[in-house]
Amino acid sequence: MKKIKAPTLEEAYEEAAKALGCSVTDLKYEVIQHPSSGIFGLFKKEAIIVASCMHPQSRLHAEPLVSMDKNHILPEQNEKPLDAPAEESTPEKKQYLPEEDEIVESFFGSEYLDEDEGYEAEQEVIVYDELARLIESQLKELMDLSCFDINVVEVDVRDNTALIFIDGEDAALLIGKEGYRYNALSYMLFSWLHTKYELFVKLEIAAFITTQEEMIRNMLKPVIDNVLKQGKGKTRFLDGILVQIALEQLREAFPDKYVAVKTGREGKKFVVINDFNKNRMP
Q1: CB 39 within 8 A of CB 131
Q2: Is there a contact between 12 and 5 (Cβ–Cβ < 8 Å)?
């Protein structure tokens, strides 16, 4: 059995065949890790396989009994003439191959695969942690260049989302009146991180999101009551992050209804709630 690493699976198969002295078609292999180009070139992964030869006896028989130099005969042939008839395989030799097959089968058993799945999950966490540190370092540089007194920048990356927490003396100024600076910063971060790393963004500055979520929750109470009575309803016009917060809370409250963001004539947004359209029999 051989563990092979290569940039691609095809190269890994070729390397395994060379190492085992058999053709690629005679390989018995398990793919431990598929190759990956990573996230825009970062955290690239090689292909990893574990392989054995399906017919090891053919490989054993293919080995020369005599070295290329006629004056140097292999030790096991010293007492045998070159033209001596081949001896029959002994019972011990016949038992070797099944034992090797059992070892190979046990190597590819469920216990090994479970361990590999755990390894891949661990590697994914490592990639996310490395990416989080990289984004956090770049955000700190950005905050240092700004005119705001910000001393806390923390980033965590989970499930393709960058969770960003920012705090400091000027956190309120960074949020701005009615959250207009918060919205601008959120759009800027999303444009950067989604384009470069294909990540979504959830930004929290001080306790801004927590406060807004509580405010929207209180604002939606009469809307929810009206939907329970009438079967449908809508919110007032909302700006920026408030639209997303209201959408999430209403979808949580009405998982079986149609909940979506609509845009009015003046470009203002609101959330509507009603029943899904159903095909009715004439």
Answers
A1: yes
A2: yes
Structural domains in the chain, sorted by start: 123-206 (3.30.300.20), 209-274 (3.30.1370.180)
Q: pLDDT per position in the chain (282 positions), as tens?
A: 788 888 888 888 888 888 888 888 888 887 777 787 665 455 567 888 888 887 655 444 444 434 444 444 444 444 445 454 555 444 444 444 444 444 334 433 444 444 555 545 555 556 778 888 999 999 999 888 888 888 889 999 988 889 999 998 888 888 887 788 888 888 899 999 988 888 888 888 888 888 888 989 999 999 999 999 999 999 999 877 788 889 989 999 999 999 999 988 788 899 999 987 644 444
Distances (CA, A) of 87 to 57, 70, 278: 15, 22, 81
Q: What's the CA gap between 149 and 154, in Å, rounded?
A: 15
pTM: 0.45
**Token pair in block for residue 224:** 């929810």
CA distance 21 to 23: 7
